[in-house]
Write a structure and sequence with these properties.
CATH superfamily of the largest domain in chain B: NADH-ubiquinone oxidoreductase 51kDa subunit
Bound molecules: flavin mononucleotide, iron/sulfur cluster, FE2/S2 (inorganic) cluster
Largest sheet of chain B: 5 strands, mixed
Number of domains of chain A: 2
Number of strands of chain B: 9
Order of helices and strands of chain B: HHHHEHHEHEHEHHHEEHEEHEHHHH
CATH architecture of the largest domain in chain B: 3-Layer(aba) Sandwich
Number of strands of chain A: 4
Structural class of chain A: alpha+beta
Number of helices of chain A: 7
Number of domains of chain B: 3
Helix content of chain B: 40-55%
Strand content of chain A: 5-15%
Largest interface: A-B, 43 and 52 residues
CATH topology of the largest domain in chain B: Rossmann fold
Distance between the termini of chain B: 43 Å
Strand content of chain B: 5-15%
CATH architecture of the largest domain in chain A: 3-Layer(aba) Sandwich
CATH class of the largest domain in chain A: Alpha Beta
Oligomer: heterodimer
Distance between the termini of chain A: 29 Å
Shape of chain A: elongated
Strand order of the largest sheet of chain B: 6-5-9-7-8
């Protein structure tokens, strides 16, 4: 097996599996860990995780494909997710999504040519009181790999993209 | 009307350190746990207080927590599990996130007391994967509580052992359904199991399990400290205590407001949320998440309790209101809702898998003023084929709001039929 966890991730793995009476129960958190380590959940990563937990590859695949947070293919550095569910729909989420599609010249779930952004329309983020809301995943940020941006407008979302672009330019 | 100034979970929200152990303890936190474990409250006594509190489940269905705990087998060789439903995903709902981010120790203390009452030594908190900050704060709270001796072995010298673990979801609304959540916790796709057997009998890892919502458990410490009757008295008949009410949409001050059960909806919308955001009058409100049938603006003189909303042909749900103004096309709004349920159906049962897509396709047609074969009756008949014919309640959750929109806004929907365009939005 060519894949291996870093020392840090291995420590985290040991902590996680200690929480359950069997190894399979650790599958979701360990897939999150593997995705953070290896970028996305490729077939190789699924095999690796299955091997670690003694879960047949087909079962790992069933799980990895059932849940939306596992990226089966590489995504952009920033995964920008715009909520358009009821509260966000009523307060401008659709307009923000339209604007970002144009600005980034991508369709829903598309990635920009430079690989910096993936844009996606998502369901309610539990931020309806501060709608519209945008979630940005940045796996390079170990502290806050998932950040929420709330009370957004077309202008603030536009500025957010510019900030992220600058961040990508400065530390790759 | 009840005293509207009493607060429990939001009382110290202005303290920016409330999410830390020292912050929580500086306001008397873990007093409930001390009272139970050091003050000689038996598990049975804690259970009694929760029963007396009329604490109804805050996850949407409103089942009384004390009664649910009573469904556990009296004698069992197997471990008993407490599972916290922190998968908050019902569109329009944003209350559990506040508790986890800003008052997580109230949840941890509630979990410990619930475990004491149901004789469980292990609790999992299943946190929606997207809620990273919630996960962080809950994990930190657990670590701090463990370091202080509130979690682990022989808690406060009482002989009580209890572990609490956070567990991240991975993006699937259906995992909020309790059986899907259990499957997911076992490392499987989140596909609901048939009931019965209910989780209290055969739940996590085949063992007796109680599943409760975050908010339900977060109120338990206050109940233990102050007594179940005192909590019940804060609310209204059959609906004890306070609740976190959310208001979003076209209001002036969207947000969360902690008020008694039974508070008038008008008070929440007009006094707390400041009424409508501009000059456009209110058109309607979705009372408790997208699965609840909407009410008209003329219907908001209603008490926010489970029975009153049911009587009005709707549901209290999660208690988070989504308010919309005149000019909003209810067909388009419903189309967005139907899209959601189509997207989230786990696909296990045919009426839900096919029905949610069928509903969405036809409502979308209507949205654009197309003609429907069979008129609005087609939508009714799709709903009727889903309702009651599925493994879990997601099917019902998809059909009920559509029936509700047809009942309340039928004329507007009829005006779309064959109009060639939306007659509401310009
Ligand atoms: C499709 C579906 C989604 C649900 N989502 C949630 C949820 O996100 N959070 C929650 O607490 N309960 C949710 N529930 C309700 C749970 O099944 C269960 O009733 C609840 O967690 C019990 O806790 P309570 O009695 O404390 O409310 C959902 C139910 C269904 C059918
Ligand atoms: S009702 Fe829908 S979500 Fe529930 S089990 Fe059936 S297909 Fe899955
Ligand atoms: S509807 Fe967008 S966060 Fe809830």
């Amino acid at each position: 097996m060519s894949l291996a966890f870093s020392e840090n991730a291995q420590r985290r793995f040991d902590l996680i599996v200690g929480r359950y009476p069997n190894l399979q129960a650790a599958l979701l958190p360990v897939l999150h860990l593997a995705q953070a380590e290896f970028g996305h959940v490729s077939p190789e990563v699924m095999d690796f995780v299955g091997h670690l937990l003694g879960v047949p590859p087909i079962k790992v695949q069933q799980v990895a494909t059932f849940y939306t947070m596992y990226n089966l293919a590489p995504v952009g550095r920033f995964h920008v997710q715009v909520c358009t569910n009821i509260a966000c729909y009523l307060t401008g989420g659709k307009e923000i999504l339209c604007h970002l599609k144009q600005k980034l010249a991508v369709e829903n779930k598309g990635t920009t040519a430079d690989g910096v952004f993936t844009l996606e329309e998502v369901e309610c983020l539990a931020a309806c009181g501060t709608a519209p809301a945008i979630q940005v995943n940045d796996p390079h940020d170990p502290e806050w790999p998932i950040a929420y941006h709330e009370n957004q407008t077309v202008a603030s979302a536009d500025a957010l993209i510019e900030r992220l672009r600058a961040k990508a330019g400065s530390n790759g | 009307m009840k005293n509207l100034d009493v607060k429990i979970l939001t009382k110290h929200l202005d303290d920016p350190t409330l999410h830390t152990l020292s912050g929580y303890e500086s306001h008397g936190g873990y007093g409930g746990l001390r009272k139970a474990l050091k003050g000689g409250m038996t598990p049975e006594k804690v259970h009694e207080e929760v029963k007396a509190a009329n604490l109804r489940g805050r996850g949407g269905a409103g089942f009384p927590a004390g009664i649910k705990w009573g469904f556990l087998p009296k004698q069992t060789e197997k471990p008993v599990y407490l599972v916290v439903n922190a998968d908050e995903g019902e569109p329009g709902t944003f209350k559990d996130r506040l508790i986890m981010e800003r008052n997580p120790h109230s949840l941890i203390e509630g979990c410990l007391l619930a475990c004491w009452a149901i004789k469980s030594k292990t609790c999992y908190i299943y946190i929606r994967g997207e809620l990273f900050k919630s996960y962080k704060h809950v994990e930190q709270a657990i670590d701090e509580a463990r370091a202080k001796g509130y979690i682990g072995r022989n808690i406060l010298g009482s002989g009580f052992d209890c572990e609490i673990y956070p567990h991240p979801g991975a993006g699937a609304y259906i995992c909020g359904e309790e059986m899907a959540l259990i499957e997911s916790l076992e490392g499987k796709p989140g596909q609901p199991r048939n009931k019965p057997p209910f989780p209290a009998v055969v739940g996590l890892f085949g063992c007796p399990t109680i599943v409760n919502n975050v908010e339900t458990l977060a109120y338990v410490p206050w109940i233990v400290e102050n007594g179940g009757q005192a909590y019940a008295d804060l609310g209204c008949e059959r609906n004890g205590g306070l609740k976190l009410w959310g208001v979003s949409g076209h209001v002036k001050r969207p947000g969360l407001y902690e008020l008694p059960m039974g508070v008038p909806m008008r008070y929440l919308i007009e006094e707390c949320a400041g009424g409508m955001r501009g000059k456009v009058p209110m058109k309607g409100v979705i009372p408790g998440g997208s699965s609840c049938p909407p009410l008209l603006a003329s219907e908001i003189d209603i008490a926010l309790d489970f029975e009153s909303l049911k009587q009005a042909n709707s549901m209290l749900g999660t208690g988070c209101l989504t308010v919309f103004e005149e000019g909003v096309c209810t067909v388009r709004l419903a189309s967005r809702i139907a899209h959601f349920y189509e997207h989230e159906s786990c696909g296990q049962c045919t009426p839900c898998r096919e029905g949610t897509g069928w509903l969405h396709r036809n409502i979308k047609k209507l949205e654009h003023g197309e003609h429907l074969e069979g008129g609005l009756g087609l939508l009714e008949s799709i709903c009727n084929r889903i309702l009651g014919n599925t493994i879990c309640a997601l099917g019902d959750a998809a059909a009920m709001p559509i029936q509700g929109f047809l009942q309340r806004f039928g004329d507007e929907w009829a005006a779309h039929l064959g109009a060639g365009r939306c007659p509401v939005e310009a």
